[in-house]
Amino acid sequence: MATQHSKTAARLMISPAVILLLLWMIVPLSMTLYFSFLRYNLLMPGMESFTGWDNYYYFLTDPAFSAALTNTILLVGGVLLITVVGGTLLALLLDQPMWGQGIVRILVIAPFFIMPTVSALVWKNMFMNPVNGMFAHIARALGMQPFDFLAHAPLASIIGIVAWQWLPFATLILLTALQSLDREQMEAAEMDGAGPLDRFLYITLPHLTRAITVVVLIQTIFLLGVFAEILVTTNGGPGTASTNITYLVYAQSLLNYDVGGGSAGGIIAVILANIVAIFLMRMIGKNLDA
Amino acid sequence: MGKITLRNVQKRFGEAVVIPSLDLDIEDGEFVVFVGPSGCGKSTLLRLIAGLEDVSDGQILIDGRNATEMPPAKRGLAMVFQSYALYPHMTVRKNIAFPLKMAKMEQSEIDRRVENAARILNLTSYIDRRPGQLSGGQRQRVAIGRAIVREPAAFLFDEPLSNLDAALRVNMRLEITELHQSLQTTMIYVTHDQVEAMTMADKIVVLNAGRIEQVGSPLTLYRNPANLFVAGFIGSPKMNLIEGPEAAKFGATTMGVRPEHIDISRESGLWQGEVGVSEHLGSDTFLHVHVAGMPTLTVRAGGEYGVHHGDKVWLTPQADKIHRFGPDGRAL
Question: Which residues does A126 contact at the CB level (< 8 Å), separation at least 6?
Fold first, then answer.
């Protein structure tokens, strides 16, 4: 890439891919933007008309919106908390030399390979079901009343399911980071009189900050769009107790046949995600350089 | 105080015996160098003393107290690692202060000691930088600073200069020696470089395959090597070792004579040979001379000694500087 000539050639070569990607993004986005300003209901085909900001107004003033926003934040925050803390602890555990380490590591990674719909259904029917679920059996064996997780603690249950899926990802990233920790640094800290807890706080944790940043960034992107787990377990209910923004957009456009309102919701979701992204980059992005 | 005594210390990794039973006394204030080829167990021995490895058998006494089972932090020793092992996310100041902070020392005392160490080691202008922004020599000094603030009973150095370039290494060698002069604390220093061993040590411990071959002052080892291994290891360039009938004339299985103890002449001498490669160092010239019936001999001549490839020369070993070794490799 040294000469002017090779630079031009490189730009020319890359351009088809860049243009394709741009179109791929820009066409659906502009169509969504266009629909969001239309009065567009699937029950009244051919009656589309321009309505200005109405769709946005109705979506934002919908009481379900503020509930969905809170739920989204709780869902993302809760899952991040569980996966980062749990992932660090699991990674520390898996980093210990032990017999059958390879097999155990593969087993730990396994949940990540299960598709969200399947894992949510398994959790719903085999674990959390108040009659047949494993937790109900355990509760009865202990002489307690079975707890109907998805009815009484829907959001917490979904956080649990999603966290279960993402824990292996966090563990994997943090484990590789742990393995790159210089052994002599640990020994130096040991010589310096740092106990196990101090060694974790002053040596291991600072070493893991970059990996934790990566986990938080990547997971946030995916967790803002959690949908399948909600659809197959609670359908966003009871009421709006487990509806997040993504699910609200789905409900608006496909359950209420209101494409215009759904599009407005989609645009709002994009804006919110960008705000989150900017804040995340500001807060922890500086860990990534140097 | 820093008197360290090893009694029958053994180290095994599974079946492999790395150090078969070893005894060693290190007096207070001594600068002891463990030297040997790579894989001879010198670093393992240092780690045993530090407490980073468990002793398989035997005892380690520090100032008369049995420290065999003590955790590293309780032994009162400080270690400087080959990779320096600085904490990359902490500034120089925090790195040096870390052991004191772990000891729950008062902040004012910590500051005083850190400033003091930084002054001794010329680190004051870098004190708020991170290790990543320092050069190799500066990192090395930070690692030493982290060791000295604890005022330990003894310092352990694990090949601390091997990551530095040659010029810096000579400098740091002097600095560490001076530090030892001013602190008068026991220092144990591991190296594979016999020049470091010779220049720094009060006492050299030559190790080979986990066994101590010889213990003594640099000049004792130079003058009276106890066996072939020490004879070949100490001294640069290596001692010439000659076997066969020529050695038998001197009543030995193997005779050894150092390059600097062979007189060279163009007229007469004991052995006649032909000059091969000559290495001109300025101050000295090392000639590699081929003599019939002997391995190539290295001979030291004056810096301006003018010889050419293929010249015939006569060599005579200085009679009182000949080392004689028996069939078991021990000195006679």
Answer: A132, A133, A134
Contact A185 B98 (CB under 8 A): no
Can you read off the two tokens belonging to residue B197?
Answer: 């061993």
Q: What is the pLDDT of residues A228-242, one digit of tens each?
A: 989 998 888 788 888
Q: Does A52 touch chain B (CB under 8 A)?
A: no
Q: Strand ranges (DSSP E) for B159-308? A: 186-191, 203-208, 211-216, 240-243, 254-257, 262-265, 271-280, 284-291, 297-302
CATH fold of A53-287 reads: MetI-like fold (1.10.3720)
pLDDT of residue A289: 59
Average pLDDT over residues A74-92: 94
Q: By the 8 A CB rule, do B103 and A193 touch?
A: yes
Instruction: Judge whether residue B296 has pLDDT over 80.
Output: yes
Q: Give the strand order in the sheet containing B4-13.
A: B16-26, B4-13, B57-62, B65-66
Structural tokens at position B74: 């309780």
The answer, for B83 touching chain A at a CB cutoff of 8 Å, is: yes
pLDDT band at B301 (very low <50, low <70, confident <90, very high): confident
Asked if A203 lies within 8 A of B87 by C-beta distance, the reply is yes
A285 pLDDT band (50/70/90 cuts)?
low
Helix axes B166-183, B136-148, angle to 10 degrees: 20
Q: Is the ipTM of this complex over 0.95?
A: no
Decide if A189 touches B, using CB distance below 8 A: yes
pTM, 2 dp:
0.79
Provide mean pLDDT across the span A207-224.
89
At the topology level, CATH places domain B238-325 in OB fold (Dihydrolipoamide Acetyltransferase, E2P) (2.40.50)
Which candidate in B47, B49, B80, B98 is best for mutational testing of the A interface (most A CBs within 10 A)? Answer: B98
- Domains of chain A by residue range: 53-287
Classify domain B4-231 by CATH architecture.
3-Layer(aba) Sandwich (3.40)
Residues in A touching B71 (Cβ below 8 Å): 190
Kindly list the domain boundaries of chain B, sorted by start residue: 4-231, 238-325
pLDDT digits (tens, 9 = 90+) for B113-127: 999 888 888 888 888
For B37, residues 6+ apart whose C-beta sits below 8 A from its C-beta are B192, B208, B233
